[in-house]
Amino acid sequence: QVQLVESGGGLVKPGGSLRLSCTASGFTFSDYFMNWVRQAPGKGLEWVSYISRSGNTIYYADSVKGRFTISRDNAKNSLYLQLNSLRVEDTAVYYCARAFPKGGYDYGFDYWGQGTLVTVSS
Amino acid sequence: DIQMTQSPSSLSASVGDRVTITCRASQSISSYLNWYQQKPGKAPKLLIYATSNLQSGVPSRFSGGGSGTDFTLTISSLQPEDFATYYCQQIYNTLSWTFGQGTKVEIK
């Protein structure tokens, strides 16, 4: 069965950095576009970043552009998000999500991980 | 960026009620509209993609419609397990995939 498992969250001071990981199993990881989506405590969903199957095409939300970097390692079935220059407002649960359909993204995100909490506080 | 506005923000309904949630886009998004359900402490779940297509395993009491800027999610007969928060999402603008602010469906 398809599984996405995030890790790497934690407490960090403003201006600090973290690297989130998402390990995929149960499907051919290299066949799918992948995304990060976050949710601040008690708030709605915010799409953060997207990466194509090969990693050649990447998009970011304006709120994180220049501070966050998405990457993937298809040999390790893993997706990453490097978070730099963190701000209090980056505090959220970060989810990795698989784009649907296979080889595309027009139909949304069909599988999500359980999320990893990032808390930015002094 | 394309803004997505859901209404209402919350609603109270009883088991068996017919419930409709509306999502409006700030510009036309054709049929690039998806719906998700999220329960407390859980990841979102894709319910409907491309406006009206039911994701595999989703009960047929859920349906979606609309086009252009106005879309709806309808639950024909609300069940206890349907009490949750629902989000719409546009996939039209490939540089920024925005979600609506959410609609919380509560028990009356």
Describe this structure in words.
The complex is a heterodimer of chains A (122) and B (108). In chain A, the strands form two sheets. In chain A, strands 2, 4, 5, 6, 9, 10 and 11 form a seven-stranded mixed beta sheet that branches. In chain A, 0% of the residues lie in helices and 50% in strands. Chain A is an all-beta fold. Chain B is an all-beta fold and 108 residues long. Chain B has strands at 4-7, 10-13, 19-25, 33-38, 45-49, 53-54, 62-67, 70-75, 85-90, 103-107. In chain B, a hairpin with a 3-residue loop joins strand 5 and strand 6.
Task: Write a short abstract of this structure.
The complex is a heterodimer of chains A (122) and B (108). Chain A is built from no helices and eleven strands.
Instruction: Please state the overall shape of chain B, judged from the principal axes of the Cα atoms.
Output: globular
Put simply, the count of helices of chain A is: 0
Q: Supply Rg of chain B.
A: 13 Å
Question: How many beta-strand runs of chain B?
Answer: 10
How far the N terminus sits from the C terminus of chain B, by CA atoms, comes to 36 Å
**What gap, in angstroms, lies between the N and C termini of chain A?**
40 Å
Q: How many E strands of chain A?
A: 11
Largest sheet of chain B: 6 strands, mixed
Q: Percentage of helical residues of chain A? A: under 10%
List the helices and strands and how they pair.
The complex is a heterodimer of chains A (122) and B (108).
Chain A: E1 3-7, E2 10-12, E3 18-25, E4 34-39, E5 45-51, E6 58-60, E7 68-73, E8 78-83, E9 92-99, E10 109-112, E11 116-120
Parallel strand pairs in A: 2-11
Antiparallel strand pairs in A: 1-3, 3-8, 4-5, 4-9, 5-6, 7-8, 9-10, 9-11
Chain B: E1 4-7, E2 10-13, E3 19-25, E4 33-38, E5 45-49, E6 53-54, E7 62-67, E8 70-75, E9 85-90, E10 103-107
Parallel strand pairs in B: 2-10
Antiparallel strand pairs in B: 1-3, 3-8, 4-5, 4-9, 5-6, 7-8, 9-10
